Amino acid sequence: MCYNTRFSHIYVERRIRNHPRTEQILLRFPQAQIVEIEHYKDVFNRHGQDCVRQHQAQALILAEKTDHFFYEGAPVCQDFGNTNFYYCSTMMNCIYDCSYCYLKGMYPSGHMVLFVNIEDYLEELDHILKTQNMYVCISYDADLLAMEAVTGYVRLWSAYAAKHENLKLEIRTKCAGHAMWDLPCLSNVIYAFTLSPQKMIDAFEKETPSAFARIVCAAEGLKKGFPVRLCFDPMLYLPSWKTDYLQLLSQIDRIFGDRMLHDGWEKLVDVSVGTFRISQEYMKKLRRVEPFAPAVQYPYVNCNGVYQYPPELLKKMESFMITELTQRMDKENIYHE
């Protein structure tokens, strides 16, 4: 089957058609067909969409966010010991196509929504930060760094964080674009790299950078003094999982050593460990749209509304990883779901 190229079609809400950021983004895609719409949900929330097929020819939807700029962090997400844990979505959906991604269970569409009014997010944050600290994950429902060349949003967030010491940002990514290290180096902006063994990337994480590329990118950030977090989360099961994760850890050791980062593990802000888990609501749809994905169709157990590996396997996988990591770094910097 022949698909259109990514962003060959761009839908634009009429009310933000002349927004400066809309115009900047459209200039990047001069060949795209522009379709004006009343509201992004007219396209994004249509019934009967096939989000898996749509990923093969993603459209971009430019919209305005009007409410609910920040949400409290979900119980299945790690807060790394921070209070006032929130996340926000300046984008919805991802350019990567991981078969196990919860977004396929959460959203009705595979197209990407970009809210152009990021200044409204920052204005609301101004009010909140007057009364409390905040830990905000800005890249949960999309990979912002993978879209930075289009949006420039990570640079905007960084500039804002530089002026607010009581704000801490986490930017989760599978990206390996070294241009991120041209951004300001700030102690309150953490770059969190999701790492998987290459065998699992090949099987479950289509279109994402290799394990090698991600590790090299993270190592460069460490060497330049950026706060870097490594996330072994989600850990995924294959019959060879133990060998696969040992190879991944050895690969990190080698890359750190090759770049004279002999204390690389200690330079990390922290690491996170957690096996795959997903809410029962999202899993129901995810299994329907990914019927042939082993990571999705595995016989998970439902524990209080969350699908996860059977307790014995879960404990075995996570304990193994924690044991290996404690040989490389302080245990107090290992966060475990």
From TrEMBL:
Matches recorded under InterPro entries: rSAM_sf, SPL
Gene3D superfamilies: 3.40.50.12110, 3.80.30.30
GO cellular component: endospore-forming forespore
Listed PANTHER family: SPORE PHOTOPRODUCT LYASE, SPORE PHOTOPRODUCT LYASE-RELATED
Transmembrane parts of this sequence: none
Family matches, as SUPFAM superfamilies: Radical SAM enzymes (SSF102114)
Top-rank taxon, per record: Bacteria
One function term, GO molecular function aspect: 4 iron, 4 sulfur cluster binding
Name of the protein described by the UniProt record: Radical SAM protein
Source lineage: Bacteria, Bacillati, Bacillota, Clostridia, Lachnospirales
